[in-house]
Specification:
The complex is a heterodimer of chains A (about 160) and B (about 450).
Chain A lengths: L1 H18 L5 E5 L5 E7 L11 E7 L10 E5 L34 H13 L10 H7 L4 H12 L1
Antiparallel strand pairs in A: 1-2, 2-3, 3-4
Chain B lengths: L12 H14 L1 H11 L34 E3 L5 E3 H10 L16 E2 L2 H9 L1 E3 L6 E3 L3 H8 L4 E3 L12 E3 L11 E3 L6 E3 H11 L4 E3 L6 E3 L3 H5 L6 E3 L10 E3 L3 H7 L5 H41 L5 H10 L10 H78 L8 H5 L4 H5 L1 H17 L1
Antiparallel strand pairs in B: 1-2, 1-3, 4-5, 6-7, 8-9, 10-11, 12-13
Classes of the chains: A alpha+beta (about 160), B mainly alpha (about 450).
The complex binds zinc ion (7 copies).
């Protein structure tokens, strides 16, 4: 039952995505309802991201959209990981919107893409998060769990 | 019993909605036949989230969680509407309104206003079995009682055979079809219920080439082809007026040029049309004539009436009319007949008027519909564009604000604490992204 709910919702979203997407967002792969890939571009002239396209990987659990999808940047030829103080060099994104606390079931793939576009648009620092090397070398957790862990730590 | 030619099914929403109980009371026979069928019905559950709707469903009727037209809608105290099951799931995960993030518990949910429920009930969706469109609220009933393609118990269930199979409803009035028969085309033995499907789709002998025109056709549809085969022998277009020419259908146009009736034919056609209009005119004239005759009689009778004791004439007319001497039964019956015919004339006028009105209404709605669709599309586009721009504007503002803070040194230091903290690399960053994304998500959410 739960699986089919996520599947139905995702098939609705896919229908919409196949029809029309906001500028700078395009669908790359959606062969099933577990894993999608989309490309995003930054639309303004921010020199950090000029003429670049970035690939996003979405992983959906059977509880989507009650639970957030796992969203990471994916490095592949022509598709680097964007420089940002909240994006680790392994593609993991530190964005509350994608964590258990910040997520809302009215969000969808399209709105997540637009949020990430905006996150890049607003950025001026051409740098990685502090401790990036160490984090990338040691992390074995899934992005969702990390988010949870460091909310606990900070508060 | 054929696939083509759907009569409007008995539960067509527009007329049947309010009328059905009255109609069935007036016609006990229909009631009985459905009763008999009722014990073969299977209860179907319609998955409302899997329906295909006709046209686009109004954005305001879409649940933000499942993205489908609302099912059992409930409205929160903050004024947002969701499916009952969707918001239940969401609240079991976090006790916030998914749209505006205000505190929310199951107790804050109320059934949505009647107007929303009615709009949802009226949404037209395709029947999952026969693909004919019905109001969503009628689908369950349609599937369980009327849908020709929905499954019901085999009619053999109630006989001594005790057949336990299910069949499509359109087969159910033919008795149990679960006996073996032979395909007339390929001689394969199969169940009678499967024969139609087999002959149309599966049989490897199902196709045949027309021996006249060579076109490929289904064996079970041979008779349909007969009337359109270009190589079949057909009569001249003017056969009705005396031409005896017969030729292959494709060659008939050639004959038309040399047909000896080619001048007479069209004339005869016109005459025929004229005669028909004249006939109908004559018919209406006789009708009015009859009406006027009755009227004259009525008036004449009215003049005679004063000289006659009224109650006596009534009496004589109704009870003693068998006796020839008991006065002329004409006057009264003529009078009431005249009134009756007046009534009839009025009634037919009324029905004409209402027919014209419904026709007009239909025209108007399609016109309106066609006009509003592009407007709606444009609106949706503008809405989404406005969403992105306003989001970006807010981002730029926020960015500018942070810039200012930074320039002012230790401003009203909201980041002050965490800036100085010596936590792990990642914890150092968390306050900033969280605030950013919060603002962001609210931006998007409020626009949705
Ligand atoms: Zn709300
Ligand atoms: Zn819903
Ligand atoms: Zn149906
Ligand atoms: Zn049977
Ligand atoms: Zn066959
Ligand atoms: Zn033919
Ligand atoms: Zn002829």
């Amino acid at each position: 039952m739960a699986t089919s709910f996520a599947t139905k919702r995702l098939s609705k979203e896919l229908n919409k995505i196949n029809g029309q997407l906001p500028p700078g967002i395009s669908l790359v792969k959606a062969d099933d309802f577990q894993e999608w890939q989309l490309d995003i571009k930054v639309l303004d002239n921010n020199p950090i991201y000029l003429n670049q396209t970035y690939r996003l990987m979405f992983k959906f659990s059977s509880s989507y959209p009650i639970e957030p999808p796992e969203v990471t940047f994916l490095a592949c030829p022509d598709r680097p990981i964007p420089m940002h103080p909240h994006i680790y060099s392994n593609g993991i994104i530190c964005l509350d919107l994608l964590g258990m606390q910040g997520w809302s079931p009215v969000q969808n793939v399209e709105s997540i893409c637009m949020s990430l576009q905006s996150m890049l648009t607003g950025n001026t620092k051409n740098e990685r998060p502090e401790g990036d090397q160490q984090f990338v070398a040691n992390n074995r957790r899934r992005p969702r769990d990390i988010d949870f862990y460091y909310h606990d730590n900070t508060v | 019993m054929s696939l083509q030619g759907h009569n409007p099914p008995p539960n067509t929403p527009s007329s049947d909605y309010s009328l059905s109980p009255r109609v069935s009371r007036r016609q006990p026979r229909t009631q009985m036949s459905t009763d008999r069928a009722a014990n073969l019905n299977i209860s179907h559950t319609v998955d409302l989230r899997a329906l295909v709707y006709v046209g686009t469903v109004d954005q305001n009727l879409i649940c933000a969680i499942c993205r489908c037209a609302l099912v059992d809608p409930v409205t929160t105290h903050c004024g947002h509407t969701f499916c009952q099951s969707c918001i239940d799931d969401a609240l079991s995960h976090s006790q916030l309104c998914p749209v505006d993030r205000s505190w929310l518990s199951l107790a804050d949910l109320k059934p949505s206003p009647r107007i929303i429920v009615n709009q949802l009930d009226d949404l037209k969706a395709k029947c999952p079995s026969c693909s004919i469109a019905y109001a969503r609220s009628m689908l369950q009933n349609h599937l369980e009682r009327y849908c020709k393609e929905a499954l019901v118990f085999c009619a053999g269930k109630n006989t001594e055979q005790g057949c336990e199979e299910t069949v499509k409803r359109r087969f159910s009035d033919k008795g149990c079809l679960h006996y073996t028969t032979e395909c007339p085309d390929c001689q394969e033995s199969l169940l009678m219920v499967e024969l139609e499907d087999h002959r149309e789709k599966l049989c490897d002998q199902r196709n045949r080439h027309c021996e006249r025109c060579g076109a490929e056709l289904l064996r079970c549809k041979e008779s349909d082809h007969e009337t359109e085969c270009p190589d079949a022998i057909a009569c001249c277009k003017w056969a009705e007026y005396g031409c005896e020419h017969e030729a292959k259908r494709r060659e008939l146009p050639l004959h038309l040029d040399e047909c000896s009736f080619k001048l007479v034919g069209p004339m005869a056609e016109i005459l025929k049309k004229e005669i028909n209009t004249l006939r109908s005119e004559v018919r209406t004239l006789t009708e009015t004539n009859q009406l006027q005759e009755r009227r004259i009689k009525f008036l004449e009778n009215g003049f005679r009436d004063p000289y006659r004791p009224l109650d006596y004439s009534d009496f004589s007319d109704q009870t003693l009319s068998a006796i020839p001497e008991a006065g002329n039964p004409e006057p009264l019956s003529a009078g009431s007949e005249y009134l009756l015919s007046l009534l009839e004339a009025q009634e037919s006028k009324m029905s004409q008027l209402s027919a014209a009105m419904t026709e007009n209404e239909a025209k108007q709605t399609t016109l309106l519909f066609n006009e509003t669709i592009p407007i709606k599309n444009e609106l949706a586009e503008i809405r989404s564009m406005q969403q992105t721009t306003s989001m970006h504007v807010r981002w730029l503002l926020r960015f500018r604000l942070q810039d200012n803070h930074r320039r002012l040194g230790t401003g009203p230091g909201s980041n002050g604490g965490s800036d100085g903290a010596t936590g792990g690399g990642s914890s150092n960053d968390s306050p900033l992204p969280r605030r950013l994304s919060d603002g962001l998500s609210r931006d998007i959410i409020t626009k949705l």
